[in-house]
Design a protein that fits this description.
single chain
Length: 331
């Protein structure tokens, strides 16, 4: 693995404020050339409140509030003790999309600095003018291969995920199959999959968010709109034999469910057909189906083959930095 001191850039990651991002970013905080920020900068409560008000989405949707450049110095302030250029990475485009002029400020600080928008959700679900967004960053990077091709942007196919809790190998589990996710455009698929599994005698735990009352089913094991921390989610993974992944319509890449199943050594049941072409695919602990009628129930019934899982180095969060180094420098 490349020594961090040999990297060509320092890195600042912004808007890392959701607990499900911790496995990917928290391990990077120990490196002196990397800053991981929950927000744009750290300051006292009053200044933070003024900043959030100035950048409020609801307020700026009604009227574009001027003078956002007053915050640029604080946003770009850092503690790096070297003269390397900086790669500013804005998760979901936050802050850089709110004030596109920030791009030119960053370039004025050092023309070799880079500005990257990093998307861990589908761009097609956002109300973006993609060409306009491209004009105020150097690169847009997406987890989804299909959208990378559609929008002619960078695709990161690697896995960056560190374990937050112990990895266990129990002989019995509370749940046969576990699912967590927002309904979005897949509620019927979630329901059909749940009922199909339940009819086969499997003990299922499905936590589904964003569901209207009139669309709920009254079934044991089907839980709606329940707030859950990411740590609680991991404990559910730990207590389940198989993790279910149902990707959104229009998506073609794996979600966090794949990483969770692999790192915590659980079976993965997924409708992500493209996974069979990935270097981490292993039929002994992964099963792919196109719809609920194609599920391989025997796959779920078989014991977990703990020896079949890939080496965890493949999921080292540091691989994210190696990815950036490669496409920023062309190495």
């Amino acid at each position: 693995m490349k020594d961090l001191n040999d990297t060509n850039y320092n890195y600042v990651f912004y808007n890392v404020n959701e607990d499900y991002l911790e496995p990917s970013f928290k391990p990077l905080e120990k490196y002196p050339q990397i800053e991981v920020r929950k927000n744009a900068f750290v300051s006292n409560n009053l200044i933070q409140k003024l900043f959030f008000l100035h950048y409020s989405y609801k307020l700026n949707r009604r009227i574009r509030v001027p003078f956002k450049k007053l915050w640029f110095k604080k946003i770009c302030n850092n503690s790096f003790d070297n003269n390397k250029p900086i790669c500013f990475v804005f998760l979901g485009g936050k802050y850089i999309n709110d004030a596109p002029e920030l791009f030119y400020y960053i370039k004025k600080l050092n023309p070799e600095n880079k500005v990257v928008i990093y998307c861990a959700d589908l761009i097609s679900k956002k109300n973006w003018n993609i060409n306009k967004v491209k004009s105020h960053c150097d690169y847009i990077v997406t987890y989804d291969k299909g959208e990378a091709e559609k929008y002619d942007i960078c695709h990161y196919k690697g896995k960056y995920y560190g374990a937050l809790i112990d990895i266990t190998t129990p002989s019995e589990f509370e749940n046969d199959v576990y699912f967590l996710g927002f309904a979005k455009d897949r509620l019927d698929e979630i329901h059909n999959t749940f009922l199909s599994l339940k009819n086969q005698g499997f003990n299922c735990k499905f936590i589904v968010c964003g569901v209207d009352n009139d669309k709920k089913l009254s079934e044991e094991g089907l839980i709606y709109n329940r707030p859950i921390s990411y740590l609680e989610n991991l404990k559910n993974v730990q207590n389940s034999k198989c993790v279910l992944e149902l990707i959104q319509g229009g998506s073609s890449s794996a979600t966090l469910r794949t990483s969770e199943a692999q790192v915590y050594k659980r079976k993965l049941l997924t409708n992500n057909i493209s996974i069979v072409y990935q270097d981490y695919y292993d039929a002994s602990n992964m099963s792919v189906f196109s719809n609920f009628e194609d599920i391989d129930f025997d796959f779920i019934r078989k014991p977990i083959d703990y020896c079949s899982f890939v080496k965890r180095d493949m999921y080292n969060p540091y691989n994210r930095i190696l990815f950036f180094e490669e496409f920023l420098t062309g190495d």
